[in-house]
Amino acid sequence: MSEKILIKNARAIVTCDELDQVFYGADLLIDGPRIEKIGRGLPEQGAHVIDGTGKFVYPGLVNTHHHFFQTFVRNMMTIDYPNMSVPEWLDKIYPIFARIDGDVIYYSSLTAMADLLKHGCTCAFDHQYCYTRSTGKTPADRQFEAAEQLGIRYHMGRGTNTLPRELGSTIPEEMLETTDEFLKDCERIIEAYHDPAPFSMRQVVIAPCQPMNSYKETFVESVKLARDKGVHLHTHLGEGENEIMVERYGKRTLDWCREIGFVGPDVWIAHGWELQPEEYKVMGSTGTGVSHCPAPAVLGGFPILDMRAMQREGMLISLGCDGSATNDSSNLLDSLRMAYLMQAFHSKARGGSLSSYDLLKIATVNGAKTLGRTDLGSLEPGKGADLFMVGTEKLELAGAVHDPANLLARGGVTGPVDLTMVNGRVVFADGRLTGVDEERLAREGEAACTRVLRGQFKEYWTAN
């Protein structure tokens, strides 16, 4: 029999359902991986009781764009990202990425996943395109191993770069793959890991890194394979590459993608700050989503998405951290706060802003829709038991708790949450990840970073 859990007497349960219901002084009953009931005075029925007194309960956040491997390439002032274009930055950072091995993939993934879980993220997509001579084809396997250890719901984006530098890419030879070997490994990991069933803990996405760094055939064949296997597609688009794409193909990136079928409700892109208003219509009409990553946009000084205009055209917008090399954080609550403030900055010029609650739904309901997860994203009977709790009986929150739906981004609640649950299992509580030795993993991760990368940072920047 599955274990039942009863969250008892929560101060508020913010459901993010279609009616935007908030339950006050209520209970939430969980049976195995699913939510069974929400209401007042629910009988314990032999369930394990979690005291919700003074706690706000929210749906787990869904991260739709990240690069976990970059967690060990952060806090590097030697790469002045704010003063570079994206192609220039890629040209500087890729030689360092080329040094990464399987241990760095594993421990950097653990690091990013831990940060996400501690800040209320329960389901995460990672765009893993770092395949080097040292990693071989192991990154997907190492990442699924890390995700299972921590208990996070994980969507693995199998990325690649196939175009050599001499043909105009920014990719070192050590990180190049052929289209055939990429597709072969996609088939392998889909067979080994992809689970399309309700409450699945692991899925696979076919995600060639970016059009300007791959052959056209890589994207064409990715579309064919994804549609054959019934998995989603993802790539970077609209982040400074359009000038290159126009020079190379005579058309903007979205037109190029539409021509080959790399659009649709099973496709979403990362960033999109270069998209034009007429392209919003294409995105909306085809059902193609966009993952908004606020931190790299601010750090790079790039345009702030006009999210209201995008929504008017029917675009599906979700939220992502992006890689730590352009964020230095895997805290999606922090990204939520940043996204809210960025929209507020343009509110007068754009005829209004999105509310804090609007952004919360983008980070929960929309994130689940983006990943094709109808079983996640809100707290309601039948949905997956993914949630986090925030304690309100703290002096710093006095006077702000009358509106739980809008509290997080507007109130700047960006620190570690009180509890995170994934699939009906508590994975973080009382400041600790459950079931793992954090200190040991941190020591091992530091050792891997030092062994593989830290010496190389100094060597590379001395030579360049």
Describe this structure in words.
- With 464 residues, the protein is of the alpha/beta class.
- The protein folds into 2 domains: 4-59 and 378-432, Urease, subunit C, domain 1; 61-370, Metal-dependent hydrolases (TIM Barrel, Alpha-Beta Barrel), CATH 3.20.20.
- 36% of the residues lie in helices and 20% in strands.
- The protein has 15 helices and 17 strands.
- It has helices spanning 86-97, 102-118, 139-150, 179-193, 216-229, 242-249, 253-260, 277-286, 294-300, 307-312, 332-345, 356-363, 365-370, 407-411, 438-463, and strands spanning 4-14, 22-31, 34-39, 48-51, 55-59, 61-63, 121-128, 153-158, 202-206, 233-237, 267-271, 289-292, 317-319, 387-391, 419-422, 425-429, 432-433.
- Strands 1, 2, 3, 4, 5, 14, 15, 16 and 17 form a 9-stranded mixed β-sheet that branches. A 4-stranded parallel β-sheet has the order 6-7-8-9.
- Helix 4 links the parallel strand 8 and strand 9.
- Residues 56-427 form the Amidohydrolase-related domain.
- GO terms for molecular function: hydrolase activity, acting on carbon-nitrogen (but not peptide) bonds.
- This is Hydroxyatrazine ethylaminohydrolase.
- Keywords: Hydrolase.
